[in-house]
Give the backbone structure.
Amino acid sequence: MEILTSYSTLGDTESAIGEAVEKLKARLVRPSLLLVYFSGHEDANLIRQQLVADFPDTQILGCSSCQGILTELGYFPDTVIGLWAVFDFNGAYGSALVSTHQRPGQMARQAVLKAIQNTGRLGELPSMILLHASPGAEEEAIEAISQEFGTPVPIIGGSAADANVAGQWQLFTQDHTSSEGVAVSVFYPTCEVSFSFHSGYAKTGLSAVATKVDGRELIELDHRPAKEVYEEWIEHSLNYNESIMSLSALYPLGRVAGILHDLPYFKLAHPNSVTERGGITLFASIKEGERFYLMTGTEDNLVNRAGRDVGGLVESHHQIEAIGGISIYCAGCMLQVKPRMAQVAEKMRQAMCDAPYICPFTFGEQGQFVGGENEHGNLMISKVLFYRE
């Protein structure tokens, strides 16, 4: 099993794909799976068509990223196409995208079953699932996948993104392209895998219960307008109908996802804007009765947390051969520390044990916590490392 990455920063899409695939074609055998992350290229269908022509028998999953990507070679801002290829003769990989007018859960279930069918491993649990969905479909998709298997198969993923939160995100597989839907790849690799899902934020002493919600809008906390409570917490006035993404990136809202050694760990929700009725919109679905904690972080936290080892592998397995990895890094965090993203890339490279990796910037992150829960959150980092002991 081997993993390779390549990239191109050329502005012309056709030329960029040509440059990016050149390194992979030198391998002489087709990739088992090809992941594609792109930013600044609007024609996803052209990317898909060229890749299918170059690798007609390869399973492919593509997802747009916000203002760049990371690889083991560094940080590539703005306009870029990045490829992540796995060559695994005895492994199995399948991709599928469902973009219909059904509920996200139905689309996710159909996508997973189709992807497994593409592997030829029917009836066999995959080692992991990579999930990329349009924003808003994530929690229901995760729940449906978990119900389908009846056991927590690890999920890593990120919500499709664009440069300016303008709804121009795109998804594709070897079969078709769409701006809405649920796309997955299933993995049956011939190696070990280790996962990590964390935020790097700390809980403050401030919390309140959501007493009124509407979809992804938090309307009331402890029976008061959410805007007023949040303003008091962060000691900063907010304006209606204006983005608060940058401000709130250091003050997200957390919910307890689980407890380990008597200590809670949290999934985060990133406040996006203030509504006319005094509510706060979020990039995650919420429920009445949930307790929200004000979380806090610093730019140093957002940079340094990328260096966390994947699942503690370096500590627990001193002799491993790292093959490669995938990481998902929140677009909101990236925008907050964009001048320092070269540092993030270097710390991520160290966490991936110098192995080839790729990392898009997404509008929501999915991963498996240490307690085994697959969750969707914001301002998170999700990672997987493929390795041999």
Q: What stands out?
A: The two ends are 13 Å apart (CA to CA).
